[in-house]
């Protein structure tokens, strides 16, 4: 229903921002990372959004980047992970870090978020990796270079898939960079190359 909001930032509070559009203030629940990216109240702001519809409430979530929104969608698709937990994760980790953790099976990193224990973190990593495998089953990607470098490149492609990119697109971009770079650096460079303005792109 709502894909994005552009207007004046009326106010912020922990975990939320109010964007005024045409005289109507929209309360958006946001991560701490998005909150830090916002201008001061009174400034113009654009948030990408997702609307949760329930019998007793309509809840709007706002994101500074498409990568964060994509990651939020993937996280809330995991059993046991609701919007509150997803925002908690995206408040302490960037989308790149979440995607890298999922792609490499690093569940320990996910436990840095409030409300995410060891078991839930393991479930998140496992289910996201399964989603990546399902998406990539018809895609082919053979990284070049020594095993360690090839592993980094494959992990970066997996991570970009978690963030919503087609495996073929992700593979083509990752292949342009030195596969010996750390996984997070490969992800960051690839996102910049795909969309320098917003780190966007979705399946």
Explain what you see:
This protein is α+β, with helices and mostly antiparallel strands and 203 residues long. The chain folds into 2 domains: 4-63, Nucleic acid-binding proteins (OB fold (Dihydrolipoamide Acetyltransferase, E2P), Beta Barrel), CATH 2.40.50; 65-197, 5' to 3' exonuclease, C-terminal subdomain (DNA polymerase, domain 1, Orthogonal Bundle). The chain has helices at residues 32-37, 66-76, 83-92, 95-104, 107-110, 118-136, 147-162, 167-174, 183-194, and strands at 4-13, 16-21, 24-29, 44-54, 57-63. A 5-stranded mixed beta barrel has the order 1-2-3-5-4. α4 (95-104) crosses α6, α6 (118-136) packs across α7 and α7 (147-162) packs across α8. Residues 136-147 and 198-203 have low confidence and may be disordered.
Give the uncertain stretches in residue-range form.
136-147, 198-203
Summed up, the helix count is 9
Q: What fraction of the residues are assigned to beta strands by DSSP?
A: 15-25%
Strands, total number: 5
Secondary-structure element sequence?
EEEHEEHHHHHHHH
Question: Any idea how many domains?
Answer: 2
- Helix amount, in percent? 40-55%
Structural class designation: alpha+beta
CATH superfamily of the largest domain: 5' to 3' exonuclease, C-terminal subdomain
Strand count, sense and barrel status of the largest sheet are: 5 strands, mixed, barrel
CATH fold call of the largest domain: DNA polymerase, domain 1
Distance between the termini: 19 Å
Report the mean per-residue pLDDT as an integer.
Answer: 85
What is the CATH C level class of the largest domain, in words? Mainly Alpha
Rough shape?
A: globular
* Strands ordered across the widest β-sheet: 1-2-3-5-4
Q: Can you tell me the CATH architecture of the largest domain?
A: Orthogonal Bundle
Rg over CA atoms: 17 Å
């Amino acid at each position: 229903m709502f894909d994005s909001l552009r207007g004046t930032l009326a106010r912020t509070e922990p975990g939320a921002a109010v964007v005024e559009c045409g005289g109507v203030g929209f309360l958006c629940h946001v991560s701490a990372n998005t909150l830090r990216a916002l201008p001061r109240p009174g400034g113009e702001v654009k948030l990408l959004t997702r609307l949760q519809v329930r019998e007793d409430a309509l809840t709007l979530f706002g994101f500074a980047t498409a990568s964060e929104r994509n990651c939020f969608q993937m996280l809330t698709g995991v059993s046991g992970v609701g919007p509150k937990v997803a925002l908690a994760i995206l408040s302490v980790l960037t989308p790149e870090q979440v995607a890298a953790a999922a792609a490499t099976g690093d569940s320990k990193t996910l436990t840095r978020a409030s409300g995410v224990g060891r078991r839930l973190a393991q479930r998140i990593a496992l289910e996201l990796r399964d989603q990546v495998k399902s998406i990539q089953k018809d895609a082919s990607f053979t990284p070049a270079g020594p095993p360690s470098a090839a592993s980094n490149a494959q992990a970066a492609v997996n991570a970009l898939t978690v963030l919503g990119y087609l495996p073929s697109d992700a593979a083509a971009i990752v292949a342009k960079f030195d596969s010996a770079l750390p996984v997070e650096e490969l992800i960051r460079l690839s996102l910049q190359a795909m969309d320098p303005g917003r780190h966007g792109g979705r399946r």
